[in-house]
Structures are given as C-alpha cells and as structure tokens.
Model the fold of this input.
Amino acid sequence: MTYSSILIQFLNGLASASSLFLVAAGLSLIFGVTRIVNFAHGSLYMLGMYVAVWLGERIGFWWSVPIAALAVGAFGALVESALLRRLYAAPELLQLLATFALVLVVKDFALWAWGPEDILGPRAPGFTGAVTIAGLQFPEYDLFLIGFGPLVLGALWLLLTRTRWGTLVRAATQDREMASALGVNQKWLFTGVFALGAFLAGLGGALQIPREPATLLIDLSVVSDAFVVVVVGGLGSIGGAFVAAFLIAEIKAFCIGLGLSQFTLVVEFVVMAVVLVIRPWGLFGRMPALARGAGAVEPPLVAPSPAALKALAALLAALALVPVVSGGYTLVLLTDILVFALFAVSLHFIMGPAGLHSFGHAAYFGLGAYGAGLLLLRAGAPMELALLLGPLAGGLGALVFGWFCVRLSGVYLAMLTLAFAQIAWSVVFQWDAFTGGSNGLVGIWPASWLASKAAYYYITLLTCAGGIALLWRMLYAPFGYALRAARDSPLRADAIGLDVRALQWAAFTLAGLAAGMAGALYAFSKGSISPESLSVPRSVDGLVMVLLGGIQTLTGPLWGAALFTWMQDAVARGIDYWRAVIGAVILVLVLAFPQGLTGFLRQRFAP
Amino acid sequence: MQGMTRRSALLTIASLTVALAAAQPARAQAIKVGELNSYKTFPAFLEPYKKGWELALEEINRSGGIGGRKLEVVSREDGGNPGDAVRAAEELLSRENVSLLMGTFASHIGLAVSNLAAQRKVVFIAAEPLTDKIVWENGNRYTFRIRPSTYTQVAMLVPDAAKLKKQRWAIVYPNYEYGQSATASFKKLLGKAQPGVQFVGEQAPALGKIDAGAVVQALADLKPDAIFSSLFGADLQKFVREGNLRGLFKDRPVFNLLAGEPEYLDPLKDETPDGWYVTGYPWNEIKTPAHQKFLAAYRAKWKDYPRLGSIVGYSTLYTVANALKRAGGADTEKVIAAMKGMEMETPIGPIVWRPIDNQSTMGAYVGRLAKKDGKGVMVNWRYADGALFLPSFEEVKAMRKE
Done:
C-alpha cells in the first residue's frame, strides 16, 4: 500500500463508520432505556431503504431521506405502543421473540410491496462525482457521509444533555424504576425513545441508497453489525457506539487494503470477543444496574407431580408406538422435532435455571454434527462410534468458549456466545479441505441396521428422551439447586461457598454436549451437514423455541420446539407468504401468552 | 365435533366423499413430480423460474401430458438450508409419492438433495446449482443437472480473455464455493491458454457483504491490466457503482461471470459498465423460432419478460416430460436409461444429456455489456454451446468417484 492508498482506505473506513454509527446509535438508545434487544432494528433500516428509494423516484433523493426516516420513526412508535408496551412485565427476552416475529413480517411485507429484485437508487444529486485526493478518486457522497456521522453524534449529545427529555432518557437508562418512582411517564418516554431509535435506523437506511441497493437480505446482516458495534462500545453509550463503529470500520477497511479480505467474514466478531474478554462491559459501558421488576422474579421450579410424570411417561409410550401405526413422513418430521427438542432443552438448561442467555448455542449443535461427520468421513470411524463420539466436539467447544463466557453476564454474555459461534462458523466455512467449506459434508448416512426410518426414529427417540431426562434430573440434584442459587443471587451463593463460575462453566459444557448430541443425530438423519447448522439463524431458532414454550417452565422448550418445527413444516408448504404467517402467529402467541405456552397453562390450571 | 349438528356433519362428510370421488380418476392417472426450491431466499431468480415451469406444465398438459397421463408438479419451499430441504424432499417422496425430484438453487442445497436422491434411489434433476461437484466430484447416477456449471461458463469466457494478451490479472469473487471454484477454474484455464500470465491479487468479500469502496481501492492498488470477477446481485451493484465512481474500470477490461443475466443486469440501469465481457441472456434480441415461440407464450401468460430463471424452469420441466415419455413411465431405472444421451429442444437451442456425467450441454450467451436508453443490454453476443466447453470424457472419468 502506498501512502495515498492508506489515506483513501482510512477515508473509506470513516464513511462506513458513519453509516454503521447511525443504526447502532438507535439500537443503543433503545436498549439503554427499554432493555429491549431489538432484533427488528435491521428491518427498520431495510424499511428506510425501500421507502427512500421508492419515494426518491417521485420527489427526489434529498426529500426522500427525511420523509423515509420520519415514516420509519412513526412505524417504530406504533410498534412500541401497540406491541412491545404490553410485554414489559413479561419475562426477560420475550420482547426479543416479538421483535423476531416482526423481522419475519416486515421481510414478507417488503417482498410483497416492492418485489423480489434489488433496487439500486440513483446517485445523490449534487454528489454524483468523485474528487481527487492524493491522486486517487474518492466519491463526493462518501465525504458527505464522513461529515454527517459526527453531526448526528453532536445532535444526539445536545439532545441527551441539554434538554429535559434527554435528562429523563439518561435517568431511565441508569435506573428506570427510580425514574418511574419519581413520576416520569414511562409510557411516553419509552415510545419516544423507540421512535427516535427507529428514526435513526430509517435515516441510516435511507442515506445508504446512493451507495447500495435496497435488498431483502440487508436486515439480518445490518442488525448483527449494529449489535457488535453497540456491545463493543458499551450498551447505552452513544459515544461508545461512535468509537466502536470507527474502530470496526477501519479494521475492516485495512483488512481489505492489505489483501486479507477473507478475514472480513469474521473480523468484527473477533474484535468483539477480544474486547469483551478484556473489558466485560464494552469499551465505554458500565456495569448494568440489577434489573428489578416483575420480569426479574422467577418462581422456583417445583418438582413435577406424580401426575405430570405419568403424563410424560404416557407421551413417551405414545411416541414409541408411532412407527406401528404410521410410517414415512410422520417419522421424518418427528425425528426433526425430537432433535430440536433436545437442542431447545439443552439451551433452556443454561438460559433458564442457570440464567446464562446464549445467542450462539447452534455452535455446539453444529460442532457435534461436524464432529460426527468428520469422524465418519475423514477418520473412517464406524457410524455408531461417530454418533457416540461426535457430540464430544460440541462439549469441547462449550468447554473452551464457556470458560470465557461465564465471566460475563446478561446481554454481554449473550453477545460473547454469539461472537464465538460466528468464529466457529467462519472456521468451518473457510476450511475447505477439512470441513468441505460452504458446501459442507455429504454422504453421512446411518449404518445399515439404522437406515430405515423407523429404526432411526427409535434411536433418536431413545437418545433424545434419555438426554432430556438426564438434563431435567440434574436440575433437581444439588447441582441444579446450586445453579439456581447462583442465578438468583450470585453474591449469596458465593458467600455460602458455592463456586459460581465453576458451576456455570460445568452447566455450559453439559449443555454444549447435549446440543452436540442433537447435532450428531441431525447430521445422520439428513445425510449431509453444512455450515448453516452452526449459523446465527439456527441459534435464533433455538431461542424462539425456548421462549415460545416458556422459559420459566421445565417442559416449555419441548412444546416450543414441537410447535415451531411443525409450524415451519406445515405453513411453508401451503402458503406463499409463510414467513409473515409464522411471524403473525408468534406475535399473537406472545401477546396472548406472555409467559409462554406452558406458563400460560400453568397459570390457568394451577391448583 | 361437539359444536356441529349431526346434519351438518353428515353434509360435510357427503360433500367430502363427492369431492374425493371426483378427484380420484384424475389423481390416479397423473404422474407426480416433486419440486423444491429456496423461493423466499432467492426470490429475484426463483419467481421467474417458477413462472417458467408453470408455463411448461400448462403446455405439456394441453398437448396431452405424458402418454395421456397428466403431469402434476408438487412444489415446496426448501427453507433455504440443506436440513429443511432434505426434509421437504422426504415429504415429497413419502407423503406425496412423487416419481422424481427437481429444483434447488444454492450449491450446498443441491448437493444435499442429490445425496438424498442417491440414498433413496430416485432421480433428481438439479435446476439452478452451478457447482461443478454435483456432476463431477460428488456426482451420482441419480442426479442430473441442466445449467452449464461454473467451470463451463468460465471456459466460455477464457478465449476472449486470452485474446486480449493482458499480463496482470486481479480477481474478485464472493467468498463461497461458487466464487472460489470460478476463480480456480479461471486461473487454471487462462494459465493454460496464455502461458506466463500473472495473477497479481485476489479479493474475496463475504457474499452479500462487500465493502465496495475498500475493495475497489485495494484492486486499484494492484495495478492490474484486467479484472476477472464472479460477483452477482447486490455485491455486483455496489462494486459497479464504486468502481465507476473511482475510475477502476477506465482502460481496464473486466470479465464478469453471470453479469449479463437479466436478474443481475437489470438493476444496474444507467450504472451499467460499458464493454464488460459477461455470460448472460439477451432475451429481447434472440430471434430463433424456438425462442420467439417461448417468448410469445411467456409474455402472453405472465405479462412480463422472461429472465434466465424462466428458461431454466421451463427447460427443466420439459426435461422431466421428455424423459418420462421416453421411459414410458416413471420407473427410476427406466428414466435414468432414457435420460442417457437424450436429445431435446430448449428455447435457447438443442441440448444433449451426456451419458458420462448426467450433465446437459445447455450453453450460455457470451457478449459485452452496453447501455441503451438508460438500461443495460448485451451486445456482440453469441451462443456458446456447452458441448464445446465441457471437460472431456477422460477428465470427467478421473473426477467422478463412483
């Protein structure tokens, strides 16, 4: 690289940083005040893009930007007041499920409204050309963006420090119960903050139109970038988000400049992992105040009644009889459901009783699957051995990653699990010679005595039921009680001599092992395995299953896994806009049963 | 049925029986084909694809179906990942009892379904996947593929590239199998055609996440004489805009796989770069009778122009119909035998199904990009017949493991 190209790459980084900052700032504000992990932030950004490019054809680009941003802001206000407001008293993370459903609905809405083709907008009037800097061409519009980011930062700073509203926002960020006790109208404050966050996301999207096309795939890629920036900067810190955006964008630009472009696949997650390991609350974050309120108090798990145990045994017996009465596809679908039930229960094991929210649980599912596949194909192990030993890869992954993760808590922990999952994913994705790269591995079939659908169903039923029973049993052993003590009051648990970190680390590893078992079963049921099995969407599926079923109950994840898998299968078959339908169903369920399905039943029918 | 009166229950049962009875004769006769694809993940390519096979289905059944039996397509969403795709395929096979499978878009999904087809011993006709592996390294006797693969399309561009006698080449590709194998094939083939050629550097942005400004600057730093790219979709659009703005393409020939396909060319509009060498589909300029007929029928039915996906969907279903006719039914072994060496017409020219690797000789159009009335078009194009660019039988023999 010459000096002039170093300068240009630096400016490229600045332009990207400005774009990144706009969406991250909104996300950070929303989380800071409302504690909502807004999965739909990328969808708001996407809406901003589509509205701007559509309006731009009619009234010109520069008018379309503020109008698109305002429209998205208004949509945000609507979402908050009609949907999220009803969920603040629900268990933590349920809002996450609601925003996930919104992602599905918004995506199908955009497909319906603007069609499947990418829409590339025109260049921005007045900034259509390039200027020559150090002998090299640099787009004028990128210079505009470089100036615009700090301008927004300044405006937000003024808003937050020089207005009464800003003072209230900061007060609520620090301690929302206290702010509420002092008479601040929370409803309006939350709606206002969510609308402002949505406005910033829409603005960020609209301003990208001269640089990139509006596409249906942008939502998830933007939201993961934004999360990384927010967490690296420190949740709720606008200045932190700005610094983090700058850091990540520059590192990316120079990776590309130095010819290490493959590394951009994962570089932001590596940065996040390093930052979190060194500074557990991000660069500028503070240790979060303990959450108080209805959502935080969880009733203790009571041992299942004999009637409940009998019901579960009856269910198991019924499942064992299925191959007698029905063959073919029912078994295929049930095998999938069982595998995901084990996966969801293993995730619930750490999320519920252990209180460790993992956004990257698919890593262990995928490692188990790859462990089995690689043993079979590369080491030539017999299938039975591969199925038995493959899950150890999941356990081993969890052992290593868990050691770092349990040092953190809350959303930071969740994001570190996500970072590790992405790192594991990128290794699998890039290591062509060993893991088969993006194509994955094919030809992973069960041994001949297990090849029939019924035989494979039985081995799956046996393994999954056994695994689930074992995980549940552990929760009522001293180990499980200690875990729950460590979740509910780490300080007191520590004071009575429990080693909180060791307990959580052990739980994390066990959950990884169980997820790996599910992954190995999955691999042999499909005959192939690809990097998607440890990608973020798979982790999100797990979260959805747990939350849908009810995180505060024991059997919830089971029903969540069954319902979600069945729904994907049944709805996707008959309905064109199946994503929107699944999203709508989840929204209805979330609004009707904020405690999850099982939680609702228990409240309703509790003695 | 507590809320239902007995009368209404009886009525329902009666009407259901009538409906079933009415449907019975047609169902007993129809030959069912299972189709699955990532309709929600890649709608820009797959909506036209679906319109293509729907048109073919209508034509086939209007002209008498398969020996008097109706052809029926049961179409499924594959969820955009191999696990769900395999489940959808299992559902088609065991619940719908389809005779054979067709479809898929992404390479890894195509490979997973192909692997299932071999396990379950059913014919699978891969429509969109471009991966070389599906008919070569991982090929099996049950899997057929219609489109010219990555290797073949690269081979079509290489003669033009060698003619330019450019010394220093830079390469940019989306970082997954398609881009990687396009790059590897290009280096291998151009190295052979033009000994001493230099590949001065590569950029491999993640699919859908190109940081176009930085990539363009990094490529310019390499001071290449020419550029080979296999970008497509949103990545291509961002790359073209930044490259135009920053003068990367000035006095530098660029070769870009697939960029002439309407799916990827049309969004570029007035940003379309002049003179790029591409593979694609100039739908409005092909005047052969076969294509004219297809074009008229497509426009009449859908009130829209065809994309390349439409050709693929249309030709894939005609492949199915022709194979079933030749085999005299849906028996798997007979269909495989019938497909070996089968010759047929497609809107873009006649194709042959090669017995050695189950690959069709479908070609692609090779030409240059130009701007016309603010839109991108292909000019100076010619049809490159796949038969001339596919690897020889000996090379295939060495690659196929079965």
About this structure: The CA atoms of residues 107 and 191 of chain B lie 26 Å apart.
